[in-house]
Structure formats: structure tokens, C-alpha cells
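Fig. S4 source data, part A: sequence.
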Amino acid sequence: VFDASVTMEERALLIVWPNNPDNEDNPHVAVEGFNLPPVWDLECLQTYYNVGGKTIIYVGEREDKINLMHGASASDCGFCSSRAFQRFLKEKFELTAEIECPTWWMKNDDITIWKRK
């Protein structure tokens, strides 16, 4: 039941694998004549932040934890969230907890809890 008396500051944003491969961060997966879905995760996070949100629960890969294979470049990693999302998250929120979780093959997901700085 939604309780409108609870403020945004008292709510946590749970965001799980918020972004699929996109043209901005993952141009190597683009197919000619087909546009990948637009990046939306940063806008979601900024909106939550702008209305006073204080707690993020993020499930997905983080570039800080990805070990690149020999010969791979930065654009070859991370399908779970955009780099812009990850930069904003680290800039505006402090990582307070990391919890391991089951992952897909060749993914390095975890559950992280972030508190507003």
C-alpha cells in the first residue's frame, strides 16, 4: 500500500540492472540500422536525488569490480548501468555496503547500498 505521508527522504530507490547495452557506452554491440535502447538510468537517479532521495540499493555490475580481459578496452565492459549513472552515483552517494549475490556467467554483479553524501 502506497503511503503518501512517507517522504522521499524516507524511501529507498531499488534499481536492478537499470540499463541494457547502449550506443553510448557499448558501441561495439551496435548493429547497423538498429538503435539500442536509450540510456535512462542516470535520469532516474538524478530525479530521485533532486527530490531528496537518500538511499540507493543498486544491483548490477560496477566498473570498479570488473577485471578486463587482456586486450579489452573500457568500452568492452559493463552492460548493467551506464557510466554516467555510475559516475553520478559515486559523486553524490557514499558506498556503505557490498553484498555478494548470484550472477550470470561472466558477470560480476553485486548488491550495493549507497547513502547520500
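Fig. S4 source data, part B ends here. Residues 41-50 form the longest helix (10 residues).
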